[in-house]
Design goal:
CATH topology of the largest domain: Muramoyl-pentapeptide Carboxypeptidase, domain 2
Strand content: 5-15%
Distance between the termini: 56 Å
Number of strands: 11
Oligomer: single chain
Number of domains: 2
Length: 232
């Protein structure tokens, strides 16, 4: 019994020290290296999809990317008060070239993943089809090109492995193409944006024509569950 109590005390102490370091120590040191945390409060228009991302220090970006995201989120909310912009994973606070596994390219503070929009009973909002933000795909219709199938037939079996990383999901939501398209277009029209990844069938379905919108390649994972974009 004493041993169990001792372990609990040690774990509690570690957790407290970790949280204090995350709040008070990591941000100023990250800023020296040119990275800042994305907002963690739900009161603004740019919000975390879940609290796990900031707790694990996976929400760091270059200042110009944070400023751009805040501006885009404000524009989204100005046009529709029901909506905010929810970010998924970004980058670690330190060291260019060190990837945010399992993301291979999130390693320089210039990349971020964002949630799609969904509706519930035709009502718009900031709904979550999965707790992690990943793994619930907007599947192609019969008439649309199935990039996931094509990649897996070429031997890229990891292409849809994020379906195992949902951390819990719900099935009562429907993809919101109109508001997702608004968000994508706001991103790609910004001159700071270099490129944005989304699955080919969604690019076609949403009639997205900007040449910054690209296919990420079979070596990555499918992007019909989130938006990935990066700045110059």
């Amino acid at each position: 019994m004493k041993h169990e109590k001792s372990n609990w005390v040690k774990f509690s102490a570690f957790l407290l020290i970790y949280i204090l370091a995350t709040i008070a120590i990591v941000p100023p040191f990250a800023k020296i290296g040119g990275r800042v945390p994305l907002p963690i409060r739900k009161s603004g228009n740019l919000i975390p999809h879940n609290i796990i991302t900031p707790l694990l220090n996976r929400n760091y970006v270059k200042p110009q990317l944070r400023n751009q995201l805040v501006e885009i989120a404000d524009k989204v909310n100005l046009s529709n008060k029901k909506l905010k912009v929810a970010y998924l994973e970004a980058n670690f606070p330190f060291i260019d070239g060190f990837p945010l596994l399992p993301h291979l390219s999130h390693k320089d503070g210039r990349k971020v993943d964002l949630s799609f929009y969904y509706t519930k009973d035709k009502i718009e909002g900031n709904y979550k089809p999965s707790n992690s933000g990943y793994g619930i795909f907007v599947e192609p219709s019969i008439s649309e090109f199935n990039q996931a199938k094509a990649c897996k037939e070429k031997g890229y079996w990891k292409y849809d492995y994020s379906k195992y990383l949902t951390l819990g999901s719900r099935s009562d939501l429907k993809f919101d193409p109109e508001n997702t398209k608004v968000l994508v277009n706001l991103i790609v029209k910004d001159p700071q944006t270099q490129k944005l990844f989304i699955e080919p069938h969604l690019k076609q379905r949403l009639n997205l024509t900007n040449n910054k919108i690209r296919f990420q390649g079979c070596h990555a994972v499918r992007h019909d569950d989130h938006i990935h974009y990066q700045i110059y």
